[in-house]
Design brief:
Layout: E1 2-8, H1 12-27, E2 33-40, H2 44-54, E3 58-60, H3 63-68, E4 74-77, H4 84-93, E5 97-100, H5 108-122, E6 128-130, H6 138-148, E7 155-163, H7 180-183, H8 187-203, E8 207-215, E9 220-222, E10 230-233, E11 240-242, E12 246-248, E13 254-261, E14 266-272, E15 281-288, E16 291-296, E17 302-307, E18 318-321, H9 344-359, H10 367-386
Parallel strand pairs: 1-2, 1-4, 2-3, 4-5, 5-6, 7-14
Antiparallel strand pairs: 7-15, 8-13, 9-12, 10-11, 13-14, 15-16, 16-17, 17-18
Helix pairs in contact: 1-9, 4-5, 5-10, 6-8, 8-10
The structure holds alpha-L-sorbopyranose.
Alpha-L-sorbopyranose (SOE) binds next to helix 8.
């Protein structure tokens, strides 16, 4: 079976997904082959260059035409969140399989509408999936297997953080990820969504309640070069109006929250773009009644496992090097010890999506799984805005009279 892919978007995620489409059928023997048919972007010269650089046969600037073409079977959405719903709904209505980047949407309402449309299309054999790629790091898949096999017993704690520092400089411009109307939220939806999905996936538990704080440390930033400068005549009298040179950051720079999950676990989550020194630091530790597991994206070929059932003199976290052919996804890559990287998780994602389409299986995470992340994101923002569970700490000492 050949599946002709049309991808919308060609920035970071477009490049990562292109790498996956280029490699997936070269490393895995699958019942379906991906054909990199068309890439879509708003700027015709840039998308033509992207097609050449990333290996797409054709290019277009019209996503509406793309999703309706008879020679396209799969639509891969790699755009900012404000267009996910519109493109996915049109693609599903046109009978296309849909892979949509995370978070699924910018609002719960949009995510619900997408989930309903995906469920309806499923009846016609159409498959849809959301791009929470870290599930497909072999060490994370192994983490889930150990937890599912009861190797750490009953989960008591989940501790997750995803830390970056790319906007610590106040002069970093007001890019789309810093504008709520485009991105939906800031660090929370961009990187917090990953640890919400990953921990729900590994624990097979759902977050049922949160208490959150968010912060925007830098509230005004320079406008990106393409959007500043003199405007057209604004007052109608020939005097060109000065465009503002800065704009307001309308999303969180950091989100921190505690959570309860439906299996009884107590959890803490931290997502920040101001964690100076941390470039893409995703860490998860899960403590159970019989042991613990811990994962660090900066050492993504390793999983730490603590088995509390071992004789106490022998207990300790041991490092599992997740490169054996029997480990998830590894059979297609290199001999043991020859480690893989970040981009392989996207190839694994493409493998699972192609296989699900060809075999009629339901890919995960489904839009419904991604909706479960979206309602958590929404709860975190509502909790932070309401501040209801926040108890002020009274001053330790009475103020000293001046
Ligand atoms: C930027 O924070 C980003 O590219 C995220 O959007 C991705 O989802 C994450 O995997 C890497 O960082």
């Amino acid at each position: 079976m050949q599946l002709r892919v049309g991808m919308v978007g060609y920035a970071f995620m477009g490049a990562a997904h292109s790498q996956a489409w280029r490699t997936v059928n070269r490393v895995y023997d699958l019942p379906a082959r991906a054909r990199m048919a068309v890439i879509c972007g708003r700027d015709s010269s840039r998308v033509a260059a992207a097609a050449d650089r990333l290996g797409w046969e054709g290019h277009t600037t019209d996503w509406r035409d793309l999703v309706n073409r008879d020679d396209i079977d799969v639509v891969d959405i790699c755009t900012p969140g404000d267009s996910h719903a519109e493109i996915a709904l049109a693609a599903l209505a046109a009978g296309k399989h849909v892979l949509c980047e995370k978070p699924l949407a910018n609002t719960v309402d949009e995510a619900r509408e997408m989930t309903t449309a995906a469920a309806r299309a499923r009846g016609d054999g159409i498959r849809s999936m959301c791009g929470y790629n870290y599930r497909r790091v072999p060490a994370v898949a192994l983490m889930r297997q150990l937890v599912a096999d009861g190797r750490i017993g009953t989960i008591r704690h989940i501790r997750a953080s995803y830390l970056q520092d790319w906007i610590v400089d106040p002069q970093f411009p007001l890019v789309w990820r810093l504008r709520r109307e485009v991105a939906g939220s800031g660090a929370l939806g961009d990187i917090g969504a990953h640890i919400i999905d990953l921990t729900q996936y590994v624990s097979d538990q759902r977050i049922t309640g949160v208490s959150a704080v968010t912060e925007t440390f830098v509230r005004q930033r320079p406008l990106p070069a393409e959007s500043s400068g003199l405007s057209a005549t604004a007052d109608g009298h020939g005097a060109p109006a000065e465009m503002p040179t800065t704009g307001e950051v309308t999303v969180d720079d950091a989100a921190v929250f505690v959570a309860r999950l439906d299996g009884g676990a107590l959890a803490t989550y931290e997502a920040s773009r101001f964690a100076t020194g941390r470039k893409n630091a995703l860490r998860v530790e899960i403590n159970g009644s019989l042991g613990a597991v811990a994962f660090d994206l900066e050492r993504l070929n390793e999983l730490e496992f603590y088995d509390a059932t071992q004789p106490s003199p022998e207990q300790g976290f041991r490092r599992i090097l997740v490169t054996e052919p029997e480990h998830p996804y590894l059979s297609a890559w290199w001999p043991p010890g020859h480690i893989i990287g970040y981009e392989h998780s996207f190839t694994h994602q493409a493998r699972d999506f192609l296989t699900a389409i060809a075999t009629g299986a339901d890919p995960a995470p489904s839009f419904a799984d991604a909706l479960q992340v979206q309602v958590v994101l929404d709860a975190v923002l509502r909790s932070a805005e309401r501040g209801s569970s926040w108890t002020e700490v009274e001053p330790a000492l009475a103020p000293v009279a001046a």
